[in-house]
Amino acid sequence: MRRLLVLAFLSCVCLASSCFANSATEKTVVKVITDSWCPYTCADTSEDKGLFYAVVKGAFDEVDLPTQYQTSSWTRAIQNTKSGTHDVLLGADSEHETALEVAHEFFIFDKTVFAVRKNHSVVLNEGKDLHHYMVGHISDYTYDDTGEWEDFIENHPKGVSITSSQGEVHLLELLIRKRIDVAVVNLDVANLTLKLKPEWDGITFINKNIASKLYVAFHRSPRGAELRQKFKEGFYKLLGSGKLQEIFDRYNIIMPEYTRPTAATNN
Predict the structure, then answer these.
(1) What is the spatial order of strands in the sheet that 135-138 belongs to?
(2) Per-block average pLDDT, block size 10, for the chain (267 residues)?
(3) pTM (2 decimals)?
(4) Would you tell me which of 42, 108, 165, 261 could form a disulfide with 73, CB atoms 3.0–4.6 Å apart?
C-alpha cells in the first residue's frame, strides 16, 4: 500500500468513490470490449485485432497504460461498458451519448451500402424502395444518423433480421444463396469479406452515401472520465507524430480529417 497502514480503511473507502480515479494513472489494465467487425474490430483470438483497437492501444501505449481486448456480441459489449465490467467500448454511436462518456476527437465513418447480386436488377432511389425487395440487416446496429433510410431498414415488411454475432458475412452468404435480395452492410467490412471469398464475385454494391460516425466510449465514472482524458492525450500524440496515419494506411482505409488540438481544446 502507498499509504500508512493506519489509513488503509480510509483508502478502501476512497477507492469506492472519487479516489478510484487515481488508479487510472497507475499500471492499471484498461479493459476494452466490442464485437467482431473486421477490419475495424477483429476477433480477440486473431493476431490482428483491427483498426479501432490498433488506434486505442496505440493511444494508451503513448501514455504508458496497458490494454486488454475482448470481443463479444454487440449487445453484451454495450451492457458490460455501461456496468463498468469493461472500461472502453469500441464502435459507439451518438445513441450512446447519455449512458457512456464518448471521446469525440477520434471517429471512423461507418459507410453503409446495399449489397446486391450483379445479375439481379435492384433499384433503390429512396428508402421506401427497399420494401419491394427481401432485405437483410443486423438487428442491433444503427445505420443512418439522419434516419432517412434507418426506418425503412428496421421496419421492413419482408426483412430478415440477424444478430451481430452472426455478422455481415452471414448476410452476404444469404444474398449469394438467394435467400435475400439486398444485404445492408458496411463497405469496408464487405470489401474485406469479398477479398477473402473470391468465389462471391457476383456481388456488387449500391452506394447511397449513407454514413455515420463511430466513436470510442468509456464507462461513465471518475475512472472512465480519467481514462477518456488519457486516451485523448495519447490520441493527439499519435496524430501529431504521424503514427495515426500509418495505422490507417496499414488497413488501407482513408483517415478522416481530425481537428488538431489547441489550447482551447486541451481540456
Answers:
(1) 67-71, 30-34, 88-92, 203-219, 100-117, 182-186, 135-138, 160-162
(2) 33 43 64 95 95 97 97 94 97 89 92 96 94 90 75 83 82 95 95 94 95 94 96 96 96 90 56
(3) 0.80
(4) 165
